[in-house]
Amino acid sequence: MAIYNGYKSKAEVKRALAAKGFTFSTALGATESNPKLVKGEKLGVLSKPHNLSPASESGWNMCPQASEGCIAACLHTAGNPIYLEAKIKARLQRTRAFMTMRKAYIALIAFELEALELKAKRLNMVPAWRPNTTSDYPFHTVALTVNGKPVKSLIHYFSNIEAYDYTKVTKKAMQWAAGLLPENYHITFSKSESNDHDVAKVIKAGGNVAVVFSGKTLPDTWQGVKVINGDESDVRFFDESGVIVGLKAKGEAKTDESGFVVQLAKESV
Questions:
Q1: 69 has a pLDDT exceeding 90
Q2: Which of 36, 148, 214, 249 has the smallest count of CB within 10 Å of its CB?
Q3: Does a structural domain hold residue 1?
Q4: Count of domains in the chain?
Q5: Where in the sequence is the domain holding 95, given as residue range(s)?
């Protein structure tokens, strides 16, 4: 077994984190915790979410280009309300651990990705993870050491595991469209109420853009671009390029009035 950031085992990492008061049990969430990830299993994909606190909720800004509408409609609030308080607490702890004990926390993710890859292999499935299920941090730039040797990031090292994210960071989306990110890292740009110019840039470059729509059905096209159903699964790295990934409003987004959610009755589609 590899040594990540100086840690020889997951148990050793967890002891180090527990000594500083962190009580969360895992860095990556369970596949079944996200209904869209479960849908991916039917496509042969075993995926894990990584949930941190969004925006500046933790005291650190984990979503540098988030708009007000995006923050208000964040899927951080989606899901069963019975578990919401516990989820928020765990996400805050993970974020604080990442920001204050980064080497230990990244090592924890590494051990969990290692286990994910082995499990997927046993099941003859494609291993995958979302570094930013509720955040928008550049994990492809966070360094890691493996057996004392530096590597660029978790995403680079675990090249057999598909990583994929939605982002509002224009630079990241343009880098993906230009082929400048790791081959196993898929990026989908996200439209907000205030980034139409960047949406046009990403589409022109051949990137994909997620758009949240009101109502029960998605349009076939939006602004002349083909719309695919992004709610059928979370497996974005199977998507064709140059499309709109249509999503139906969920959670707080259902009552959005900022313009973050595209109101189809007001759109020409």
A1: no
A2: 148
A3: no
A4: 1
A5: 10-266
DSSP class of residue 225 equals E
pTM of the predicted model over 0.85 = yes
**Is the distance from CB of 229 to CB of 36 less than 8 angstroms?**
no
Residues 6+ apart with CB under 8 A from 248: 212, 213, 215, 216, 218, 231
One-letter identity of residue 105? Y
> Looking at the DSSP assignment, which residues form a beta bridge with residue 221?
226
Give me the phi and psi of 210, to 5 degrees please: -85, 130
Task: Please report whether residue 4 resides in a domain.
Answer: no
Q: Take residue 211 and report the two structure tokens written for it.
A: 């758009």
Average pLDDT over residues 254-258: 74
Q: Are 132 and 165 in contact (CB under 8 A)?
A: yes
Q: Which residue has the tokens 């570094």?
A: 131
CB 229 within 8 A of CB 265: no
Strand-pair category, 45-49 with 126-130? parallel
Beta carbons within 8 Å of 80's beta carbon, 6+ residues apart: none
Residues constituting the chain: 269
Q: Average of pLDDT values for 237-262? A: 86
Strand partners, 210: 190, 245
Spatial separation of the C-alpha atoms in residues 136 and 138, rounded to whole Å: 7
243 located within any domain: yes
**Which tokens belong to 3?**
């040594």
Mean pLDDT of the chain: 89
Please report, as a single letter, which amino acid is at residue 224: G
Asked if residues 146 and 111 have their Cβ atoms less than 8 Å apart, the reply is no
- Average pLDDT for residues 235-259, to the nearest whole number? 86
Determine the pLDDT at residue 73.
53
Is residue 5 in a domain? Answer: no
Find how far residue 1's CA is from the centre of its chain.
27
Contact 126, 45 (CB under 8 A): yes
